[in-house]
């Protein structure tokens, strides 16, 4: 008696010998060939928009032979970037060019020009890990933006860049999750993909099947140090917003509508008789803020923003990136089982340290040895910054190039109170104290950061 297994094998062998299988195999081969040619064509169109970035600088590292000692060493890192405009604007990750003294850019497919360029840092945003560079070139092939909110789980994507320094590489995968938060408190949103991403891919584009920029490869989660299929990219809508801000002002204006919201969990839905995963619950409203003036109250549920439905706080954050400071946006709101529309303005976040960059100019506020633009703490600044530990000092409004010193650098929003123990009361006294330092003498800044005092130790080359 023949078993079911032997019957199945016999039927399968008969099918392989049949004309139907031969026709199917021929059709499959043709389809695979067509798919392969489509990928080749897509890759060929994208590659000229991808650049390799080499950043060189100095940093302090531990000397294993001398416990507790640090040595100044030359550092060189390689990453990727994507051309945003034909006249040489390039977006990359901020960590690719962090601390760089020189930036070199290798561009593919540059018509009638050298492929190597000096890169100028226009601006960067550490929170979102994005930076804008400029090279002196024209006729470049810019990669068009896609709408990252339209991405779907399972969608095919290609990751371009220079993994481990290997220029002009491409890998393929799918969108594992269209909007991923690393934690509930993390304001950043990422696209998760299983397209292989390795060190050196940072700053390279994540591209959809239509050849549009939908994300920027940024980092991986890995236990081995190599790609394990869990890569993350910054959504294109965030990149587009940051690009416009950095190009215009050299820093990012963070828009907000004056609400503090949270995703509606099953527990919240049960307690307040709400629909789970439909809208976001307003926990607090900023007094005299845009939402307050628009009539939004604590306990309201924001169902949609600008015509797009919201399912969680991630959706709210992503949608806001499509608006600039001064825009108005319509909210769809539910209160006591009744729905209504409210129009609110998008205003600048008042707790963003980079907002001070609009109050300075290089002629008056540059401190070249620290490569910062600073503001003397006066009555005008005190109206914006309150609760300082000391009444005087210099507020760091923005970064401005490459500092003379290396080590723990002051950040935007820091207030410098002293140089090597001597009090600082203005931009002029800060410059004067720095000029008094002898060649090779260490520099210790006392700064106030987020309400805490700390010492920053810096050294010269």
Describe this structure in words.
- With about 450 residues, the protein is of the alpha+beta class.
- The chain has three domains: about 250 residues, Thrombin, subunit H (Beta Barrel); about 90 residues, Pdz3 Domain, CATH 2.30.42.10; about 110 residues, PDZ domain (Pdz3 Domain), CATH 2.30.42.10.
- Helices cover about 20% and strands about 35% of the residues.
- The chain has nine helices and 29 strands.
- Strands 22, 23, 24, 25, 26, 27, 28 and 29 form an eight-stranded antiparallel beta sheet that branches. Strands 5-4-1-2-3-7-6 form a seven-stranded antiparallel beta sheet, covered by helices on one side.
- A hairpin with a 2-residue loop joins strand 26 and strand 27.
- The termini are far apart.
- The N terminus is likely disordered.
Give me the CATH architecture of the largest domain, please: Beta Barrel
Number of strands: 29
Catalogue the unreliable spans. Answer: 1-13, 62-72
Note the main sheet: 8 strands, antiparallel
Report the β-strand fraction as a percent range. Answer: 35-45%
Q: Rg from C-alpha positions?
A: 27 Å
DSSP helix fraction: 10-25%
Key phrases:
461 residues; seven-stranded antiparallel β-sheet; flat; 36% strand; disordered N terminus; Pdz3 Domain; Thrombin, subunit H; eight-stranded antiparallel β-sheet; 3 domains; alpha+beta
Give a short synopsis of this structure.
This protein has 461 residues and is of the alpha+beta class. 20% of the residues lie in helices and 36% in strands. It has helices at 4-16, 19-46, 236-249, 266-272, 290-293, 313-320, 362-365, 379-382, 427-436; strands spanning 50-62, 70-83, 89-92, 100-107, 116-118, 120-125, 130-134, 156-161, 169-180, 190-193, 205-208, 213-220, 231-235, 255-256, 259-263, 280-285, 301-305, 308-309, 328-335, 338-345, 347-348, 366-367, 372-376, 394-399, 406-407, 415-419, 422-423, 443-449, 452-459.
